[in-house]
Amino acid sequence: VNKLDKLIAEQEKRRKEYGDNISVAGESAPEHKDTEETLETEDCRTSISAEEKILPDAERFDYDRFMRMEALIVNKKLFLEPKFGRDELCRIANISKNEISPMLRRYAEVDNVTDYINRLKVEYSIKLMSGKPNLSMDAIAEESNFTSRSTFYRVFQKICGMSPAQYQKTKFSEIGN
Prior knowledge:
With about 180 residues, the protein is an all-alpha fold. It has helices spanning about 1-20, 50-55, 55-75, 85-95, 95-105, 115-130, 135-145, 150-160, 165-175.
């Protein structure tokens, strides 16, 4: 549980660093909806950590593009939209359908868009469990946009190695000590 919480905190920190520097096409135009936004990829002004400095320029550009995409998706909670999928992800990231899977494998360590979106939903559900401990598992599953409680449990187990109930029980027993 502590390891999961630490990983999520690290991801949030990286997303915040990139999210603070997101340049979104159409952001100044109020008639554009959030779901119609795409990341501008021409002018990158984000700071690069020591870890990222060792990346070749092309790879750094791809990583930067991925992190900016992820920050936008998480900040605007686009992954919670019922019809959010590969096409929307490609449009937001301003990349082709052929580029999205290799990018997700490399930087998110998932095999496909569904696994990526599910990972974001599980992270969100963990935040809900911490922030709203009185919510039922059904309410958490619904608020995290899982189609059913059983899907929520199956995906959570796959990603975290334990059920949501086990996570919550462990989390609260650690807080109580």
